[in-house]
């Protein structure tokens, strides 16, 4: 088990040549002003009430977080309002443009789900039949935990099938790449465990890239087509996603238009972009503009205006929230009439996010070329939400209170969250600071005399014994309460 991340760690600054670069023709004055406000209005998930310095500039954030390339596209009033690239495709390289391709990570899933649903409408698959009915090259083994209940396509698409393996790290350019069946069986050179049932189908929601890999094999066995060709013909081409492909690795002809992936420390991912034979789960290369074309297809298909892939009825099923607030390949949020669908993606050195409202013709997609890009993607989405007056995706405003430095001094110390993973608490100029092993220092702000919060969705609470001695720290994060005794 890897050590938990107390906060997203900041990395070293980029070299001076990484100043923001734009490779996009100027938009109309009104749109240009909107773009500039989005660029200068980045905010974190948490902001302090009354803090006039809460907003940050995109160029500064890219330097601080070692994110060399960012690409943004916005859907407004039912069309792509603008698209722009920022930074460079690689340090010292060309500027990012709206046509620069990024690996989409798990954003591959909703488009692959759309292909599966098209086959359902064609009568080649069923949402509710045993998936083994369609698997011929490989079968999902039975397991006692399933109690004889079959796994269905609907459950695979909604992450309720009880299938192991959350995600995939991919394969570096100097590593052998397994076949899909080897991935399913966890056989070398696969670098992930066998994809098997570990819970009863339909009993719980648990995110599973493994489930989408089973779905990929089912699509291959039913259509007898290579997966990239199947997705091109059934989804990408009909929607007009001309700068997208599921080919792995990326063909040489596309590489000139592709961003280079980077680690959070500013170093490029060794050997470049990883190869993902788990194409349905993680194999899409695309652009924010093409993701916005997908957004528009879903929005317009819901009302019967652009059913290039799915009928209105099937599209409605796709965005109907079930267990865990997931539809058929999409996370569903918001409230009626402002329900939205979204998905994030994370491949080695790439992080992306898209969000779109079902009924208002609004949405956006952000793609980045760094492991730390998710921080920026969220901040950009907050800025877009503010600029376009979305009802959601606004930062949470919290109020900090003053606590006597003498009280704060009682909390200074080292707290062991896990073996070899500590949170060190210090007091600097009256400000309580925290630093987790291998991460930089971050300030925390007082909610009460014992509870504190960072500018990030987490809280820490200090506990005392009967004599008033501070004995432990409790980290509240990601729905978990983790106790760290004081050393």
Structure overview:
The chain is an alpha+beta fold and 487 residues long. It folds into two domains: 102-396, Beta-lactamase; 405-485, Lipocalin (Beta Barrel), CATH 2.40.128. Helix content is 25%, strand content 21%. It contains 13 helices and 19 strands. The protein has helices spanning 29-40, 58-65, 108-121, 153-157, 180-185, 209-223, 227-239, 252-255, 279-282, 288-302, 312-318, 373-387, 405-409, and strands at residues 46-48, 69-76, 79-87, 102-103, 285-286, 331-333, 340-347, 350-357, 363-368, 396-398, 413-418, 421-428, 431-436, 441-443, 445-446, 451-453, 459-464, 470-477, 480-485. The strands form five sheets. The chain has a six-stranded antiparallel β-sheet, with helices on both faces. Strands 15-16-17-18-19 form a five-stranded antiparallel β-sheet, with no helix packed on it. Strands 11-12-13-14 form a four-stranded antiparallel β-sheet. A hairpin with a 2-residue loop joins strand 12 (421-428) and strand 13 (431-436).
Topology at a glance:
Blueprint: H1 29-40, E1 46-48, H2 58-65, E2 69-76, E3 79-87, E4 102-103, H3 108-121, H4 153-157, H5 180-185, H6 209-223, H7 227-239, H8 252-255, H9 279-282, E5 285-286, H10 288-302, H11 312-318, E6 331-333, E7 340-347, E8 350-357, E9 363-368, H12 373-387, E10 396-398, H13 405-409, E11 413-418, E12 421-428, E13 431-436, E14 441-443, E15 445-446, E16 451-453, E17 459-464, E18 470-477, E19 480-485
Parallel strand pairs: 1-10
Antiparallel strand pairs: 2-3, 2-9, 4-5, 6-7, 7-8, 8-9, 11-12, 12-13, 13-14, 15-16, 16-17, 17-18, 18-19
Helix pairs in contact: 1-12, 2-12, 3-6, 3-7
């Amino acid at each position: 088990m890897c050590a938990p991340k107390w906060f997203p760690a900041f990395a070293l600054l980029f070299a001076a040549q990484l100043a923001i670069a734009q490779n996009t023709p100027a938009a109309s004055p009104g749109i240009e002003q909107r773009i500039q406000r989005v660029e200068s209005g980045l905010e974190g998930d948490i902001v302090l009430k009354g803090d006039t310095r809460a907003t940050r500039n995109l160029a500064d954030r890219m330097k601080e977080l070692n994110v060399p390339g960012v690409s943004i596209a916005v859907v407004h009033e039912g069309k792509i309002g603008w698209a722009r690239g920022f930074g460079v495709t690689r340090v010292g390289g060309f500027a990012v443009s709206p046509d620069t391709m990024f690996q989409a990570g798990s954003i591959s899933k909703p488009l692959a789900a759309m292909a599966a649903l098209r086959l359902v409408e064609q009568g080649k698959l069923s949402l509710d039949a045993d998936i083994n009915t369609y698997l011929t090259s490989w079968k999902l083994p039975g397991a006692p935990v399933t109690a004889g209940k079959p796994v269905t396509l609907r459950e695979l698409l909604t992450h309720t099938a009880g299938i192991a393996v959350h995600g995939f790290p991919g394969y570096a350019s100097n590593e052998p790449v397994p076949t899909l069946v080897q991935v399913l069986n966890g056989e070398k050179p696969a670098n992930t465990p066998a994809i098997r049932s570990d819970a009863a189908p339909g009993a719980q929601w648990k995110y599973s890239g493994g489930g989408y890999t089973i779905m990929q094999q089912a699509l291959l066995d039913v259509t007898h087509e290579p997966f990239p060709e199947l997705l091109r013909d059934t989804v990408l081409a009909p929607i007009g996603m001309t700068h997208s492909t599921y080919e792995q690795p990326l063909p040489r002809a596309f590489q000139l238009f592709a961003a280079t992936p980077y680690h959070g420390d500013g170093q490029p991912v060794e050997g470049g972009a990883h190869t993902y034979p788990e194409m349905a789960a993680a194999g899409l290369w695309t652009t924010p503009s093409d993701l916005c074309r997908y957004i528009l297809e879903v929005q317009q298909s819901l009302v019967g205006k652009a059913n290039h892939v799915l009928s209105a009825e099937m599209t409605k099923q796709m965005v109907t929230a079930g267990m865990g607030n997931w539809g058929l390949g999409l996370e569903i949020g918001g409230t009626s009439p402002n329900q939205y669908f979204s998905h994030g993606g994370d491949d080695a050195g790439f992080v992306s996010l898209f969000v779109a409202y079902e009924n208002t013709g609004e949405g956006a997609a952000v793609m980045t070329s760094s492991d730390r890009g998710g921080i920026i993607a969220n901040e950009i989405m907050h800025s877009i939400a503010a600029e376009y007056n979305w009802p959601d995706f606004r930062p949470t405003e919290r109020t900090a209170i003053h606590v006597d430095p003498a009280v704060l001094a009682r909390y200074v110390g080292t707290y062991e969250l896990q073996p070899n993973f500590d949170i060190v608490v210090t007091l600097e100029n009256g400000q309580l600071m925290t630093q987790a092993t291998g991460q930089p220092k971050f300030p925390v702000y007082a909610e009460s005399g014992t509870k504190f919060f960072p500018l990030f969705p987490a809280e820490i609470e200090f506990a005392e014994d009967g004599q008033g001695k501070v004995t432990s720290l409790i980290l509240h994060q990601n729905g978990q309460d983790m106790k760290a005794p004081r050393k």
